[in-house]
Amino acid sequence: MFERFTKDARAVVQGAAEHAEETRAQTVEAEHLLLALLDREGSRASFALAALGVGGSREAVRRDLAEARRRAGLTRAETEALAGLGIDVSEIVARVEETHGVGAMSGHQRGRRWWSGHRAFGKGAKGVLEQSLRVALARQDRHIGDEHILLALTVRPGVPSEVLADHGVTHESLSAVLGSGSGRGTGEACA
Length: 191
Description:
Elements: H1 7-22, E1 27-28, H2 30-39, H3 44-51, H4 58-70, H5 76-84, H6 89-100, E2 120-121, H7 123-138, H8 146-155, H9 159-166, H10 171-178
Helix pairs in contact: 1-2, 1-8, 2-7, 2-8, 3-8, 4-9, 7-8, 8-10
């Protein structure tokens, strides 16, 4: 499948791995793909994000992702469901952080030496990349671009889609900005 990725899409995948490395995450996850997309400039996804008003609020998106990471990656819906059972996630996070430090529930290895090789892709990131192929096929595009990864993030449940929706980026709004697909491909593929 990777041979179908454009240069921009490959850069997103590589950037996601770098974000995982920087934060010492055990695996590359969907949030790392979103962070890498936020880093991009001059690509279809970056233009779509700018058109939807995210261009100036990229730091706010990053903060929202970091806050979700502090909650161990739970979405607001999951947090509310737990609250309905009498479980206060904020209280749990506060107690864990009091004992183990801020960000202890993030799933990242803080202060510990971690192997500095290639990170495996977690279930969420793999799912997004597989969904990006389905999105490209549905749009009749021959290659998978970074815009397909962004579209895939909006349709997969989880923190990245929730954070994007909070900033006005939904599958519907992205589809409107990007159009219906070209049928000709989305840019130059790299062999």
